[in-house]
Amino acid sequence: MTAPSVSNGTTRSLIWFRKALRVHDNPALAAGIARAKSAQPVFVLDPWFCKPSRVGANRMRFLLQSLRDLDATLRERGSSLLVLHGEPRVVLPRACKTWKVDLVTWEHDIEPYAKMRDTAVRGALERAGVECASSSGHTLYDVEEMLAKCHGKPPTTYSQFLKIVDKMGAPAAALDAPKAMPAPFTGTAEETKELVAGVADAYGIPTLEELGYEAMHDDEGFQAIGGETEGLRRLRRQLSRTEWVHTFQKPDTNPTTLFHALGAKKPKPKSPFEIAARDAGSKNDATNTAANSDMLMTPSTTALSPYMKFGCVSPRVFYHELNAVLAKFEGKGQPSQPPVSLMGQLMWREFYYLVGAGTPNFDKMEGNPICRQIPWNKDRELFAAWENAQTGFPWIDAAMTQLRLEGWIHHLARHAVACFLTRGDLFVHWEWGRDTFDRDLVDADWALNNGNWMWLSCSCFFYQYFRVYGPHSFAKKYDKDGAYVKHYLPVLKNMPAKYVYEPWLAPLDVQKKAGCVVGVDYPAPIVDHATASKACIDKIATAYAAHKDATAVAGKKRKAGE
DNA sequence: ACTTTGTTGGTGTT
DNA sequence: AACACCAACAAAGT
To answer: Is residue A554's beta carbon less than 7 angstroms from any atom in nucleic acid strand C?
Structure first.
């Protein structure tokens, strides 16, 4: 597709970046500059989300890095990013008045807060005579078009969803990045200073500390650098592993792959994501043995999710470049297929966006028509033990520690801790766990997060509640020696492999010798797994039976009414 | 009414 | 590594 270019237009446009922190394949950006004489890209740091209780430090750091990268990329094109601070419904109309803006463009967003915010902003701007234009870009397809294809009622199974995808045809081609930008119109106005007040940076990009976060050191937390530049680099490096791309099967990937503690021989890797790129050609990783220690260096997944969440990488670019790689393999054996293939992963994202957009109260149990009504408890003590990595189950606590420290855990680790909190052991409400993930994950994405929590709690999409992840057995098949657990829970580092996943079974003298006495140095398990999971299964069975009765009654009523 | 399918369970046997 | 068995779900297709 041809690149949008600087035109001889007359419009003063404001391009409002929210997600889509990129210049490539950005329809809102293209619309903003199409007939512009001048254009100003802006991002609004909204106090609604700019706080540690809503967005954890890892994700906030990633966002700020992405903004700096976007600013640099825009500067290369003769523009720059201005970051405004305040409520969008207040700040944007004020900015438009100050700079006599004619047109504001942005990308559609389906999240409830975003929808409310955008409606308010649009109302205020249109009342002031400013034209508003929004376009689709965060998903492969326009969500509204997909909703039309399923008559407003999204499927709750992946196979039905693929039929919708089939009807949609291939996603549109990606737009190129503009080679040059219209002149920005801030920086000359004194008012700019007022709008970015309180921030040292003249263009308003704050530091973590300025936002009230504790400073993070370079070797802490999520290490992948946010932004379009790095996102595209990582996408292409991943796609260059053609054999791996061809055979990728998500369920075969390893949630305990250790990226940090690989011993003195190899340089200490900075993060899962630093390693992601490092090795081309290795297959899905297997178990933790010396023979395949190189595979250990390979994260099992692409680690691109944070870049997708913020729109640093366009899903359509991902799709088309992935397709190009797959095309080269035609005739060289069956490639993996959705739902487990890489393309399948992209489609899961699309699936959850569709269901999330088309389901009322998608992020709640009550009032959510696709969500099973289950009498979850709201036990603060159990929940706190889970969230603070104090359950006494090393695999669960290690994963929760990695989440807290790094803002990222493998998909299957997310399964394990989500199952444990909800239907597997603690029977705590999935909405509580959802909130923790929403705050702490670098890649937290409303539609995907809520969808996955419903999946794991057997509230929707998945219903085999008797299949429970063992909190002391699941990780063992990937990591027999417990290297992952020992890395994140150093208190267990001298525990013999035999007891790493179940330290309470170790004889007291073994615990003492390892320097880890259960109940003193490390918590005793908060529940007996066998008893707890049985109780959970019973409760869900009861709830399911009630649901069945209710649907049967509703069906009869409907019949009688006709 | 019945069968098949469903991204990613655990345990035990060969 | 592959398979049966556990106990048995929902949704879609026949």
So the answer is: no
Q: Is the CB of A156 under 7 A from strand C?
A: yes
Angular region, A336: left φ>0, alpha ψ -120 to 50, beta rest: beta
Which nucleotide is the nearest neighbour of A544, by CA and C1'?
C9
Is the CB atom of residue A465 positioned under 7 angstroms from any atom of strand C?
A: yes
User: Any atom of strand C under 7 A from CB of A7?
Assistant: no
pLDDT (tens digit per residue) in A226-275: 999 999 999 999 999 998 999 999 998 999 987 533 322 233 333 444 33
Which positions on chain B have an atom < 7 Å from some protein CB?
A: 5-11
Domains of chain A with bracketed CATH? 6-138 (3.40.50.620), 228-358 (1.25.40.80), 380-529 (1.10.579.10)
Q: What is the dihedral of CA A295, A299, A302, A308, to 10 degrees?
A: -170
DSSP track, A44-98: EE-TTT-STTTS-HHHHHHHHHHHHHHHHHHHHTT---EEEES-HHHHHHHHHHH
* pLDDT tens, residue by residue, A108-159: 999 999 999 999 999 999 999 999 999 999 999 999 999 999 999 999 999 9
Q: Is A460 left (phi over 0), alpha (psi -120 to 50) or beta?
A: beta
A541 touches strand C (CB under 7 A): yes
Residue whose tokens read 């390892």: A514
Q: Give the residue ranges of the annotated binding site of A for FAD.
A: 301-305, 345-352, 443-445
The nucleotide lying nearest A530 (C-alpha to C1') is: B10
Range scoring the smallest mean pLDDT among A241-255, A289-303, A541-555:
A289-303
Strand nucleotide closest to residue A287 (CA to C1') = C1
